[in-house]
Design goal:
Layout (H helix, E strand, L loop, with lengths): L13 H15 L6 E2 L3 H6 L9 E5 L5 E5 L5 E8 L5 E8 L5 H16 L6 H8 L3 H16 L3 H16 L9 H12 L4 H20 L28 H12 L6 H11 L3 H5 L6 E2 L4 E4 L8 E4 L2 H10 L22 H11 L7 H13 L4 H8 L4 H7 L4 H19 L7 E3 L4 E3 L3
Parallel strand pairs: 1-2
Antiparallel strand pairs: 2-3, 3-4, 4-5, 6-7, 7-8, 9-10
Helix pairs in contact: 5-6, 7-8, 9-13, 10-12, 10-14, 15-16
């Protein structure tokens, strides 16, 4: 106790004064790891010695637990341990002003037990630090990816910037829930058409699918999955009748635009998209197998379109006239003929069918395929759809076709009941079974 005669009288509890005096002596002997049995009283009043940037008080009751005190008075529990490679690590545990010593010791003991079993008790903390915010992921990963892999990336970027980032930008990816996404979609739907809102929903779904595929830390599910698409009351199931098609054929033949007849016929013969036809090149055509290779379609994949004899004849007619690598080039620029609205509009007016769009030619193609009995899954492959649901939207059977089918069935039944059996028809007491001949 004679040493205490030199200890300053600070008005602090005796055990604190004793410990601070030991630190003073330790510093003179260049000892940098003062130890003591921590008590709650000591922790509540612990201070950092003047002139020190910090001081660590190591607990003798639980090896590895320490109290770090800063000049500001902030007191924090830490755990010092050796990892699986034998390296000394130090991890922050709790604010000593919030968590008491008993709880800190208990939690530290559990973490030490995990370490002894070869586990990492701080794995969750490490993971949290690597989870990006929505804005960071869009900026650093998603946009650079779609810029080089998606032709319509500018539209996606605009939708994210205007309608998603203001709401979700600061959220960490692993904290975004389905409720967050629903709120964004609902907000957008108040001022937009259902088709636009559905596109936004698709953009968000694709973004999270990419994050999952790239193993972004912390993300385990797609919060935008299984959200119902908005029904569009204005969505049309429009395709040309045979009479309308004949009228359009006549109108394009009279067009002053040299390329319009070829472009429209190619669209109808193949069911391709406008941009796919506009950017088609002669090197994409395999004359031997009668296939058209589209390098990247809307789904981002290479696909092959079968070319009918009519499509091959059209290309053979056009080939000698061509001076460009592009099949349907603008005669003036020899570049892709992407804008022919004026000539198209003139032709459809001449045909008396002003309520059709270029894309309705694709719809017409799909409907005709189904009407002649081509299975829906084959139609899906021809059109290059990634999802069968998309094909089903295009492939509506016309009312006339359905009416004709039901009339044929009724005719079979009536003929059978009158006793005029057709080949392969069997009548029993309880049923009429119609079999193919």
């Amino acid at each position: 106790m004679s040493l205490l005669k030199h200890a300053p009288h600070t008005g602090q509890p005796l055990d604190i004064q004793v410990f601070q005096f030991r630190i003073l002596l330790a510093s003179e002997k260049e000892i940098t790891m003062p130890t003591m049995q921590l008590t709650q009283v000591f922790i509540d009043a612990a201070t950092c010695p003047t002139g020190k940037q910090k001081v660590d008080y190591f607990d003798t009751e639980l090896a590895g637990l320490l109290l770090k005190v800063m000049p500001t008075g902030k007191r924090t529990y830490y755990l010092r341990y050796k990892d699986s490679h034998g390296k000394t690590k130090e991890k922050q545990l709790f604010n000593a002003s919030v968590v008491d010593l008993k709880t800190a010791r208990q939690q530290a003991k559990e973490k030490l037990a995990q370490l002894a079993l070869g586990q990492d008790p701080f794995a969750d903390q490490k993971l949290k630090r690597t989870v990006p915010t929505f804005a960071a992921f869009v900026r650093d990963s998603y946009l650079p990816y779609i810029e080089t892999n998606k032709k319509s990336w500018k539209l996606d970027e605009a939708m994210l910037r205007l309608h998603v980032l203001p709401y979700l930008g600061k959220h960490y990816l692993d904290n975004i829930t389905k409720r967050h996404v629903v709120d964004v979609i609902s907000c957008h739907a108040k001022h937009s058409k259902p088709s636009s809102t559905n596109r936004l929903m698709t953009v968000i779904q694709c973004l999270f699918n990419c994050a999952l595929a790239w193993d972004v830390p912390g993300l385990t599910t797609n919060p935008a999955n299984k959200l119902a698409k908005r029904k569009d009351p204005y969505q049309r199931d429009r395709y040309l009748t045979h009479e309308e098609l004949r009228a359009l054929w006549k109108a394009i033949d009279c067009s002053q635009a040299e390329m319009l007849p070829y472009i429209v016929r190619m669209l109808i013969f193949t069911g391709a998209r406008k941009n796919e036809v506009a950017h088609a090149q002669w090197t994409d055509i395999d004359w031997y197998t009668k296939q058209w290779r589209i390098p990247k379609n809307k789904s981002g994949k290479v696909r092959f379109v079968p070319l009918s004899d009519a499509a091959i004849n059209l290309l053979c007619e056009l080939k000698p006239k061509s001076k460009s690598a592009y099949i349907f080039a603008n005669p003036k620029t020899q570049k892709p003929y992407v804008n022919f609205y004026h000539s198209w509009n003139t032709a459809r007016k001449e045909a008396g069918i002003t309520n059709i769009r270029i894309h309705d030619l694709r719809h017409t193609y799909a409907s005709y395929l189904v009407n002649i009995g081509i299975p829906i899954y084959e139609v899906k492959e021809i059109l290059g759809h990634a999802n069968i649901a998309t094909t089903q939207r295009y492939a509506h059977l016309s009312h006339a076709t359905l009416l004709e089918a039901t009339n044929q069935l009724a005719g079979h039944v009536n003929n059978s009941l009158r006793g005029t059996l057709e080949s392969g028809t069997i009548i029993t007491d309880n049923m009429i079974e119609i079999r193919a001949a």
